[in-house]
Amino acid sequence: MIEVEETSAELIDGLPETRQQGGFLRAALLLSIGNVVSRLLGLVRETVKASLFGASGALSAFEIATFVPMSIFQLVIGGEMVNSALVPIFSEYAAGEKRRDLWEVVSIFLSLAIFVLAICVAGIMLFAPTIVSLLGADQFQDPTLQPLAIRWVRLATPAILFLSLASFISGVLYALKRFTAPAFVTATLNLSFIVCAYIWGNEEGLVWGLLIGSILQVLVQLPALRDAKLRWRINFRHPAIHRILLLYMPIVLGLVVNRVSEGASYRLATGLGDSNVSAMRFATTLYQFPQGLVATALAIAILPTLSHLALGAVGDFKETLAGGLRLVLGLILPAALGLFALSIPITSLLFERGAFGAADTALVSLMLRYYLIGLPFAAIDLMLVSASYARQRTWEPALVGVISLGFYWAAALTMLDSLGIFALMVADAVKQITHVIMMLFVLRRQVGRILGFGVINTAGKALLGSVLTAVGAWGSAEILTPILTPNSFIEKTIVVTCAGIVGLAIYLLCVQLFDIREVKNIVRDLRRK
Q1: pLDDT tens-digit profile of 496-519?
Q2: From CA 289, how far away is CA 329, in angstroms rounded?
Q3: pTM to 2 decimal places
Q4: 196 φ/ψ angles, rounded to the nearest 5 degrees
């Protein structure tokens, strides 16, 4: 395994820019490996859910039951908190003369977070019936589903504490540039889901998987905190806590609006059919696979470097960000268009067995295609938001997020009569596109134009290569399908694998012909490793 657990002082202080970029790429590669493992286990998790439960009403009840606990986790100390506030502030303490004060700051914030989370857990368990009704459980046609959702909310809610603690530990480790343990945290949770689903044999096993997996996420990261000096301490006056809360306050407001909007989407989807929420979940799992593998890994890996460069010359900051954007574009465009071309055979391969039938495949694959319209923009947006967080500017992304939700609901309600449930997927793409446009404007005001440095040129080359990739993959699948008439798992695997290989070969050829340097460098580095 690649060792990148260097201290911030070793990685940053006094080193040339090439070393910093090398550290970023090594971290991105490690996080990508972790994401590959996690996403593959996530696909296995969804395959198990599809096989055991299908796109069922009970599975929709599970999604509703876990929505509020997961929302509280995201609001209090989820990924946005880590990226926007914890990593930039902790990175300052880890890298400079303040290193001796790092564990005091960590202790104070952790104590405050646990206190707030304990109150949230008690409130959710008390008001569980009202919560699930607001999310649409009262609209289920099956009368047994609402009581199940209430029970599962109460069972899942304690997981908030452990998920938040695990996320907090990840933030500390990112600041210390110890990426190994956090890279594989999500894989632990997905593995817990899979094992518990088989042991219980029903949807309640997924709830237990969430609870047990959240505990395991904490345990697997504790060895990486070998030098931690933590103690219970409440201190509202510490300047670092004020800065963290000041940075995170706009993010909280934006997340509240976003989660309320998502809850309203759940209610709208449930009103259109009991199985819609679970079908949307299957589609978003496939949609998020390339996003997590490429964009999320790069955005997390580049954040500490950008946080450091934000203190220096603007030119270095812009050049590093542009390099990240070029790399994202070179990887996400072929993934998005290839997944679009093979959406039906991939959905069938992964999910169509047991309780998940051909009609479910048709629904999920069509949802996926609508979602994929916005995937490249969502990937770009993750990098732009990370850049703004690195400059400790959080109000602008939060405001942009709220405005983009306005575009989401305008598009969804306008197209609901004509597209039905698919209006929500198209609206999501509209939201991603408008978010990117506004974030480009925000960053231009902060640091100047960032679409130079070859970004547009790389985007054009990657788009052309990706279109050819998608056509080749689709054509290969169309040729093989009538020959094999794929019904078994092996036959479906042959179709998807062969079509995928053809698409990959075409894109690698385009990389060489069009000289897409970022992808060429990745291929070269992988060969060396």
Answers
A1: 999 999 999 999 999 899 888 877
A2: 16
A3: 0.70
A4: -70, -35
